[in-house]
Design brief:
heterodimer, A: 5-stranded antiparallel sheet, two-stranded antiparallel ribbon, 12 helices, B: mainly alpha, 5 helices
């Protein structure tokens, strides 16, 4: 659990904590300067800072649990997924150090190197990748395919939760039940349909990113992919989940037919299939598309709960409970009507 | 004449966007202020049309529930009680009661009455589409 007092501390206290940890890690005196918090990513608190050591300055990032969050996840699992992806040569920040309890950073968290120069567009930005959209999309779905091509090893099975389609649905159904502050008739109807039609796995179990979407990767000015971020929902499961979430219209930047504001859908699938060596399963994908909307609803309902209970005043949480919630409620209701027509 | 709630929210959003956000720049605080501005703007836009749509949706839902004939005696009794209404109940509490009834009726209909289930899905799709917010846009 986060240490509430520590989370309310100033940057000076946090700098001292970071300097102590890095000093012990590198075996030399370290000074920490320029701490600033990243906006967004309400699931975690993320800070950038400079660590000054004898050999030169290092630009680093701390991610730690917040006092209140959209979702409850494990920093240890996130750190493992990041390390696994980094080891496989995927474009991700290099993970450096995990503090699994609250002792060092005031809450469980980890350190990684900052990836300089990139940007992640906001939800309402139209055509955010511009002329570089094909470059971005090709790199993005190649990266996703390479992730899904990895064969989970013993360490992956030990560190990451393993959930098949039915278990994923049960997980988010429980989150909705625990956090809903009013009846949720759309989610309830969609869950009934999903429970009745749980698909067989689309292929061998994969490492699933869990939150693969526009906004969770960095690109440079020419649309080149610099880093895949936010691995906190990584798990072992069905890769169709990542495809469905990436292709959800909420993340399309208003560019219908273009996945995440990048490639047309058929091209994105082809790039993914070539890089993963896997087969796209349209039947299972239909289930995972509706699942994606329900997962979104579960996340936004949880954020509404946190705001309504005054556990957070972060406007990102209030936003999540307002715009994306209504977006997914409408999308899921329309999709359900189509599926059962 | 006083400002409407929608006008007040839009004015606050513009003040936030044009006075506070530039002063805070690209910092965490600046982006937080921009998020607040976007929220205020969206809510201001919604206040102009949402109440009317909600009134229509409520009426359609009550009509749907009134026409329901279920063979489950407990559910039928609950519906009679719910539709009789409670004049002391505020709008949100009444909505929650009606939505709770819809969840029960729809679940029953999915098992026993395909035509009623289709009507429930139609209502849900219309209601959810009416509740959806537009992305924030600056007033012209």
């Amino acid at each position: 659990m986060p240490d509430g007092a520590a989370l309310g501390e100033g940057n000076g206290d946090l700098a001292a904590r970071l300097a102590r940890t890095l000093g012990a890690l590198w075996g030399e005196p370290v000074e920490v300067e320029g701490i600033s918090r990243f906006h967004g990513g309400a699931a975690r608190e993320t800070y950038r800072f400079t660590a000054k050591r004898a050999g030169g300055d290092e630009a680093l990032v701390l991610r730690r649990d917040p006092a209140s969050s959209l979702i409850t996840t494990s920093r240890a699992a996130e750190f493992h997924a990041l390390a696994r992806a980094h080891g496989a040569g995927l474009p991700v920040p290099e993970p450096l150090y995990l503090a699994a309890d609250a002792h060092e950073f005031g809450a469980p968290g980890f350190l990684m190197r900052e990836v300089p120069g990139g940007r992640a567009p906001s939800l309402f930005e139209e055509d955010p990748y511009g002329a570089g959209r094909a470059t971005t999309g090709t790199a993005l779905f190649t990266g996703l395919g390479r992730l899904h091509a990895l064969v989970p090893d013993e360490e992956d099975r030990r560190r990451l939760p393993a959930m098949d389609a039915g278990q994923r649905l049960a997980h988010w159904k429980a989150e909705i039940a625990a956090h809903r502050i009013q009846p949720e008739p759309v989610a309830a109807a969609a869950i009934r349909w999903l429970e009745a039609k749980v698909p067989a796995p689309s292929g061998a179990t994969a490492i699933v990113h869990g939150d693969f979407r526009s906004g969770n990767f960095l690109v440079d000015g020419e649309g080149r992919l610099l880093a895949l971020l936010d691995w906190e929902m990584a798990h072992l499961g069905d890769p169709m989940e990542d495809l469905a979430w990436a292709m959800d219209p909420l993340w399309s930047h208003g560019m219908h037919g273009h996945v995440a504001g990048t490639l047309p859908r058929a091209e994105a699938i082809a790039v993914w299939a070539a890089a993963s060596g896997r087969r796209f399963d349209p039947g299972a994908f239909e289930w995972w598309q509706l699942f994606a909307g329900v997962m979104g609803l579960a996340i936004w309902i949880s954020s509404s709960f946190e705001v309504a209970r005054h556990r957070t005043v972060d406007p990102v949480m209030a936003f999540a409970g307002t715009y994306p919630y209504r977006f997914h409620n409408a999308q899921v209701a329309a999709q359900l009507k189509r599926l059962m027509a | 004449m006083s400002l409407s709630v929608a006008q007040s929210l839009q004015s606050l959003a513009l003040a936030q966007a044009l006075m506070v956000v530039p002063a805070l720049g690209d910092s965490y605080e600046g982006k937080t202020a921009a998020t607040i501005a976007a929220l205020l703007l969206m809510l201001g836009q919604a206040m102009e049309e949402l109440p009317g749509r909600r009134h229509e949706s409520r009426r359609a839902l009550e009509q749907l529930l009134r026409g329901v004939e279920v063979s489950d005696p407990a559910l039928a009794l609950d519906l009679d009680h719910i539709l009789a209404g409670d004049s002391d109940m505020n709008w949100m509490a009444r909505d929650a009661v009606l939505m709770g009834a819809l969840v029960e009726v729809h679940a029953w209909a999915d098992r026993h009455d395909a035509a009623l289930a289709a009507r429930c899905r139609d209502w849900l799709a219309d209601w959810a589409a009416g509740e959806r917010l537009d992305p924030p846009r600056l007033p012209t």
